[in-house]
Amino acid sequence: MTAHTLSDTGVMLGRSMRHITRSLDTIITVTIMPIGFMLLFVFVFGGAIRAGTDHYVNYLMPGILLIAIASGISYTAFRLFNDLKGGIFERFHSMPIARSSVLWGHVLTSLVSNLVSVAIIIGVGFAIGFRSSAGVLDWLSVVGILVLFTLALTWIAVIAGLSASSPDGATAFSYPIIFLPFVSSAFVPTDTMPGPVRAFAENQPVTSIVNALRALLQGQPVGHDIWIALAWCVGILLAAYAAAMVIYRRKFA
Question: Can you tell me where the transmembrane regions are (predicted)?
């Protein structure tokens, strides 16, 4: 992006962040559900689940973080849809600003708000027994994967926000994404699952991302999972970005 585009994107980011700070219930709602899942699985189901670890919350944490992000991006689609139907895009396009900055403002707002939610959830995790052996580089790698995952899902949210015909339609796309961690290694090892379910779980993106995050957080060798996780994140990000920009240009050609 050029300096002009970066400057315009900064203005759009500030606008979207002001909307977030005026309705903190968005972040609270997105954060409470994953925390509720974490408390439920740790204190209710945790004793009955054999995940090969003495502290189930350590096993559980990566999946909870992905659920939080998947929940959070639905609000991006909702805000984008409202701006679209409210004529905000036309108003901004009549001004001398970079057109892409309007979308990037929403995308970066999603990134910031989701990272805040993730930080809160990790804090609660530490309070209930989560512990990490990760070093500085491991934590930076965790943050990098979460950023890529958030951007990938956010651009999918942009597609939904630009294409939906109702607010419910704009947010409904996130439900299957939220469900994916439940059919992965996020809550139980995949080798405990029936054959067809196991085959799906081991070959969908969430499992490799969860496995990579779990290994990094526990300071263990990551193996090939990190490369598969990065390939999934980058591949989805590039495909969703390209599709979103095509839809955006067609709408405002």
Answer: 24-47, 59-81, 102-128, 140-162, 169-188, 226-248
In whole angstroms, what is the distance from residue 78 CA to residue 247 CA? 17
pLDDT at residue 161, rounded to an integer: 87
Distance CA 10, CA 90 (A): 19
Task: List the domain range (segments joined by +) for residue 130.
Answer: 3-251
Task: Say if CB 13 and CB 108 are below 8 A apart.
Answer: yes
End-to-end alpha carbon distance in the chain? 20
The span from the CA of 153 to the CA of 209, in Å, is 13
> Rounded to an integer, what distance in angstroms lies between the CA atom of residue 253 and that of residue 243?
15
Classified as helix, coil or strand, 220 is coil
Question: 37 is written with which tokens?
Answer: 């899942």
For the chain, which ranges sit under pLDDT 70? 1-27, 46-54, 88-100, 253
Taking the whole predicted model, whether its pTM rises above 0.85 is answered as yes
Report pLDDT digits (tens) over 221-242.
888 999 999 999 999 999 999 9
User: Which residues have a Cβ under 8 Å from the Cβ of 3 and sit 6 or more positions away?
Assistant: none
State how far the Cα of 82 lies from the Cα of 88, in Å rounded to an integer. 9
Give me the sign of the Cα torsion angle 51, 54, 55, 59.
negative
Looking at the structure of the chain, the number of domains it has is 1
Whole-angstrom distance, CA of residue 205 vs CA of residue 229 = 7
